[in-house]
Amino acid sequence: LTVFIIVRKDLAKTLNWPMGAVIGNAAHAATAVLHKYRDEQRVIQYMSDLEGMRKVVMETKNEGSLDKVEATLKERGLLFHKWIEQPEGISAAIATAPYYREDVQECLKKCQLYR
Question: Rounded to the nearest 5 degrees, what angle is found at the Cα of 35, between the Cα atoms of 31 and 38?
Fold first, then answer.
């Protein structure tokens, strides 16, 4: 099982957010999804092996492309949390609940590893 975190690349590249802020928002999304769905069997299983946790951080171009990922996840009924940075109200990242790659690959086909 893997948590997939999708982060907007334009936060650092265009909006000039410090890398620490970008990483912080990805961490917020991952923490939130695990708490939000803590009673789901997939989360319980994932959390039972702390040393074996896996996360993949991916990038998407901007807010519009992050919204498309969100819509696809919703359409397929997959569990996720979108982190919105406050007080600015900026959609920064999405983290999925733990899934196998084949469960989410169609939703993330336009994303690439964050670089």
Answer: 135
